[in-house]
Amino acid sequence: MIPDLLDRTARQLRELLDRGEVTSEELVRAYLDRIAAVDPGVNAFITVAGDLALEMARTADARIRRGEAAPLTGIPLGLKDLLVTRGLRTTCGSRMLAEFVPPYDGTVVARLRDAGAVLLGKLNMDEFAMGSSNETSAFGPVRNPWDPDRVPGGSSGGSAAAVAAREVVAALGSDTGGSIRQPAALCGVVGLKPTYGRVSRYGLVAFASSLDQIGPLTRDVADAALLLTAISGKDPLDATSLDRPVPDYAARLRADPRGLRVGVPREYFVDGLDPEVEAAVRGAIGLLEDNGAEVVEVSLPHTEYAVATYYLIAPAEASSNLARYDGVKYGLRVAGRDLADTYRKTRAQGFGAEVKRRIMLGTYALSAGYYDAYYLRAQRVRTLIARDFRAAFERVDVLACPATPTPAFRLGEKAGDPLQMYLNDIFTIPANLAGLPAVSVPCGLTSGGLPIGLQFMAAPFGEQTLLDAAHAYERVRGEPVAYPDPASTA
Ligand code: GLN
Q1: pLDDT band of 278, cuts 50, 70, 90
Q2: Distance between Cα 453 and ligand 1 center (Å)
Q3: pLDDT single digits (tens) 147-183
Q4: Mean pLDDT of 375-396
Q5: Measured by CB atoms within 10 angstroms of the end CB, which terminus of the chain is less buried, N or C?
Q6: Residue 113: which residues within 8 A CB-CB, separation 6 or more?
Q7: How far, in Å, CA of 168 to CA of 257, rounded?
């Protein structure tokens, strides 16, 4: 086998595949071996789809031989287990959907299949995407490949850990308040949340419909660009997807920071920010400046309200979206004395504690008498937060700040304290509330050897600018220090 095959990016593999130096089937076998060796320790996968992957690989190889390969043909990917896959179990990390086999593909899944990408399986996550540590999964926690006693972040923790541990070339996750960027930061990979409406949500199990977006987790920025092009675009099946041109982001990537106007939001350097994270992020911004970027301080005055606003809007939407799990149409059914008792028992046994907490918070915020005081007011604050960004983007091209306040914390450390857990997303939530694209890029390690993420945000549909900034940073940074090497049981 080609040495370091598992370290290659999707673009590097494309060349090897097209030159016939490796087949997709060989690649898939190498990845399945890797999963068998390290995943018992990492627990990134809920379902490994070995036979399906090999079948898809052989189809991809035939297509490559015919000279009809698309950029992702034959590339082995993983999907967060809330993207519905026809004929392949989709659990959402919940007992409620533990046996659910969808009869259709979500739009992004269908696009990847059409592109000839290979699905290695479905990746672990916090239950219904609610969490920042992957500890709420009904399928056990994911361990951070850099340190097995630490969390990978969440809710796309399986996606981030699988990329970092080289169990997949790249993965898709979803981000409602940070669930792509936060685990990407904690696992030392690139994670991008697109503009709200850039990517179809059809076939994404809904958490908070006005915030959810699907996006890529990858080894580098150019791979994120490649995947973004593959999944973006208007979809008649999602009325909130927008009809805007989908550029070939990867082909247009610029690596030169000269002239780039970078805003540094003052409110993102707060008490409680880990000093090593602050130093790494300031160092990264300084490096961009040394290489010709224009760095200015900006203010986003409503930032301090973002977490509170999110924890009204997201649970409110979740309480409504999760009403569909009633033991009747699909998913778990725990039969009771009568219909109401069946609802009660199904929901009592099907949902975990965090999901129940969100449903209660959301139901309260939406109830008559409280709606105006909580939900409506949160929507108004959301508008103020979006306005802050609009004003900032009149002066700068991108904003740069930390992706998370701390590096990966220990398993169990915050599990008993929801507020501490929620504060993890303090720097990622604003982009969801404002619908902006944002990305986390690795920007170094702590003295203890844990990854740190630098976040960029851009104006709506500014994905190219966002990717250019991240790519420029990646180039001036140089290669990341190393890949983690989780213990192999093979
Ligand atoms: N951690 C946040 C939450 O628990 C964000 C989750 C997400 O983006 N899906 O709601």
Answers
A1: very high
A2: 17
A3: 999 999 999 999 999 999 999 999 999 999 999 999 9
A4: 97
A5: C
A6: 56, 105, 119
A7: 30
* pTM (two decimals): 0.97
The segment(s) of the chain belonging to CATH 3.90.1300.10 are: 7-263+395-488
* CA 178 to centroid of ligand 1, rounded, Å: 6
| pLDDT tens digits, one per residue of 279-303 | 999 999 999 999 999 999 999 999 9
Name the CATH code of domain 7-263+395-488 (choices 3.40.50.300, 3.90.650.10, 1.10.10.10, 3.90.1300.10). 3.90.1300.10
Q: What whole-number distance in Å separates Cα of residue 35 and Cα of residue 171?
A: 14
Alpha-carbon span 163 to 174, nearest angstrom: 15
**C-alpha separations of 257 from 42, 274, 350, 468 in Å:** 37, 27, 50, 8
Strands (E), 186-342: 190-193, 213-218, 261-265, 294-298
Calpha distance 115→75 (Å, rounded): 10
Question: Pairing state of beta strands 170-175 and 76-80?
Answer: parallel
- DSSP code, position 190: E
- In this prediction, residue 481 carries a pLDDT of 63
Pocket test for ligand 1, best of 133, 134, 176 (most atoms within 8 A of CB): 176
CA 394 to chain centre: 28
Counting from 1 in the atom list of ligand 1, the atom nearest the Cα of 180 is 8
Query: For residues 30 and 204, what is the distance between their CA atoms, to the nearest angstrom?
Result: 29
User: What is the C-alpha separation between 342 and 277, in angstroms, rounded?
Assistant: 49
